Amino acid sequence: MIIAALIFVFSIAAFLQFFIWHCRSILASSRRVELSDRVREVTGIQGGSFGAEDFSRLVQLVRLCPERGDDQGEIRAVGTYYNLLDFFGRMARPAIPSVAAWAEQERVNCSYFAAVALDRRISYSRDLFTQQVADRL
Amino acid sequence: MLGPVDYVLWLASFLLEVFVVVCAVRSKSFLSHLSLNLYMLAAAVVTVGQYVSIQRFGFQSLQYRYYYYYSESLLTIVMFCVIIQLYQHVFVEMNVSRYIRSAAAILLLATAFFSYAVVRENKDHLTSRFVVELGQNLHFCGVVLTYLLWGAILKLRETRTRLIQLVLALGVYFSATAGTYALRNLFPGLQESVLRWVPPLIGTWLPLAWAYTFSKVPEDARLTTARLLVRAR
Question: Which chain A residues are within 8 Å of B169, Cβ to Cβ?
Fold first, then answer.
């Protein structure tokens, strides 16, 4: 019984760490991408960075654009991670503020990821539009 | 009694397992990750076997239970080969493959012996208790090995994104499975309710994460591991 309890505690701790690192490795791919002015224009966010609460709005905008077909899985995975962080952040806020602050920072990263996805979709839409115009001509 | 969700999860995990192999072949990574691809093929065969076993003997049958636990234990042993190969990828420049293989084999035998020793005194249900105990201990060994591998990746400042994501997905899989087995050992009553859904979901996670890695992450993609560990200021 004691061994099973120890294994359970260690496994849960390891699970949380591995899951967070895995999600961060997906988010890390977007951090190096510089956002275009188009996205800031579309989202109405000038100059400053995106906030944690912008994620849902950005995902809604992403869904309005034509699908590229290769980013749906990533967006869904990051969306799940965002919701988990939201839950943990709310739970931790009264008792462990440092964890709540960390969750908030992670949610900001999720928003940035969504903004990068939106930027790619806007570029894709423009390419599609240009192609259609060229075909008509 | 199985519902439509069970069948959907089954089908999804089978398709994803095959999809991982297809993605690996398409990205010309089949041979460089041979153990991983063989594991996925074996997992797909086991998934089909589980379906056949349920159709023939029923979900509550003893035959299905033995098939489930023993095939899971065998798959976990194949998974150890995957971990060994991932270790070899990480330590490729250090020429220590022989030592890694020996250490993993000793650990595997020690785990089986430990599991047998734990249930030896409970002789009335030796076989059924042994498989659960073995499953828990094998998966926990997997957690420890993956954790050590992750430590080595950090220490050696490994930057290959594909390798990093494969290892992290494996860590999620092993820790979730070991935790579920341990919970089943602690509270056997949960098996029929909550814990029934966890193994199929975890079983879907691993091929999903690996399929993502092979299809989306290019072979030459690089990532600084230190960025993953940064805490909030």
Answer: 22
B227 in A contact zone (CB under 8 Å)? yes
Return the C-alpha torsion angle B4, B59, B209, A64, nearest 10.
10
pLDDT digits (tens, 9 = 90+) for B129-182: 667 777 788 888 889 989 999 998 988 888 898 999 999 999 999 999 999 988
pLDDT, tens digit, 9 for 90 and up, residues B20-30 = 999 999 888 89
Quote ipTM for the complex: 0.85
**Chain A CB within 8 Å of residue B213 CB:** no
Q: Which residues of B125-149 are buried (b: 16+ CB within 10 A; e: fewer)?
A: eeeebbbbbbbbbbbbbbbebbbeb
> Domain residue spans in chain B?
4-232
Contact A30, A113 (CB under 8 A): yes
Residue closest to A8 by CA, chosen among B190, B127, B197: B190
Of the partner residues B118, B165, B176, the one whose CB lies closest to the CB of residue A15: B176
Domains of chain A, residue spans: 2-136
